[in-house]
């Protein structure tokens, strides 16, 4: 199974600031995914990050608010910009290893915005 | 638009009882369905993946069935243990090319010793 790590594991931030979350996969993968889980809710896909191209955003999510980088086949970052308390959530990255359909998830980044 | 529903939202059982968790989806044109476990404040652990051509998958005490035509999947956990206490999520994937998962709201399970 793929091993996915995220940094930071949690953070408390002031409104108006930005936070960059890192995601590292232990093998090369084509697609990486960023999900948001708001308190008490299920997961919602923010965007799909492909290496070498612009990220593809889901309805309701925009690049200015959630810029994503994908510099190589094992790493991606998600930035939450100009944060407000409504951005308080767990942010998870995900991927599947080549040749399998199983999706694996990182441990998540718990963000609290004051 | 695919919608995934999990009922009940919460379930409490005594240790040793079998658990039955339900997942329903509105669009039967799925590529696969995956069950996950999430412990409080943590990420997701994959439990079972069922391809659209399969009827069930088993792993240890876990068994997941899929009835694509009726838009349903059921996760059975035999002889539940307190360590099975967690939130269980199902997610469907629409196509082979697109990896997007659509999640249900989850069932929060408490197994009492």
Name the poorly predicted regions of chain A: none
Distance between the termini of chain B: 41 Å
- Report the oligomer: heterodimer
Helix percent band of chain A: under 10%
DSSP helix count of chain A? 0
Q: For the residues shown, what is the average pLDDT of chain A?
A: 93
General form of chain A: globular
User: Judging from the principal axes of the Cα atoms, what is the shape of chain B?
Assistant: globular
Q: Give, in order, the helices and strands of chain B.
A: EEEEEEEEEEE
Please state the CA-atom Rg of chain B, rounded to the nearest Å.
13 Å
Estimated helix fraction of chain B = under 10%
Most extensive protein-chain contact, per-chain counts: A-B, 24 and 22 residues
Main beta sheet of chain A: 7 strands, mixed
How much of the residues of chain A is beta strand, in percent? over 45%
- What is the averaged pLDDT score of chain B? 94
The profile of the biggest β sheet of chain B is: 6 strands, mixed
Class derived from helix and strand content of chain B: mainly beta
